[in-house]
Amino acid sequence: DGEVGRLRKAKTQLTGPVADRDRLVLELLLGTGMRLGSLVSLNVGDIDLKSGIAHIRTKGNKRDKVFLNPQLQRLITRYLKNVGPEANTSPNVPLFRSVHGRRLGARQIQLNFAKWCREAGVTASVHSLRHTFATRLYHKTGDLHLVQRALGHRQITTTEVYAAVSDDSLRRAVSAAS
Question: pLDDT (tens digit, 9 = 90+) per residue, 108-124?
């Protein structure tokens, strides 16, 4: 969480439309655990702010949904107000666009992310945000099946990596059980 905090701090110090876009990219990845491919394929019409759901395309071009917490709903609402009227009138407009109006690609987000990490003094990858989301969700709920569903894993064995128990956690649990 220290690295996430530094990354967030570096992003909040910047202003303007590109900074708002990049901040939303970061928060969506952290707040939903979606894959980068799902993020870049999002269109404005895939976001349902009333129900707090983003309809995403997953591996194999399958459809799924992720839930948006109230903070993400507020960030998306503010972002959509600032990106221009066409984003609010056409559901097929990409949610994330370059300064030239084209869909922001995965490689550009990876390059941007590497720059954000350098600025924040953090060593991470875009995919590590998915791991951060999953680890946080597991620590809050203790429910591996819930994490499996949130990540869209078919097999629970794929999700089990997030249930690794640290020695300190085991020591506290044993002490509490005594």
Answer: 999 999 988 898 899 88
- pLDDT at position 107 is 96
- Sign of the CA dihedral with 5 first, then 108, 30, and 82 last: positive
Residues of the chain with pLDDT under 50: none
Which residues, other chains included, contact 91 with Cβ-Cβ below 8 Å and sequence gap of 6+? 43, 44, 45, 46
Report which DSSP code applies to 103: B
The neighbouring-strand residues paired with 54 are 47, 66
Angle of helix 126-141 versus helix 144-151 axis, rounded to 10: 150
- The phi, psi pair for 164, rounded to 5°, reads -60, 130
Q: What is the pLDDT of residue 167?
A: 60
CA distance 172 to 170: 6
Task: Round to whole Å and give the CA distance between 136 and 139.
Answer: 5
Contact 144, 138 (CB under 8 A): yes
Catalytic residues: 35, 59, 127, 130, 153, 162
Distance separating alpha carbons of residues 131 and 133, to the nearest angstrom: 5
Which position has the token pair 């990845």? 29
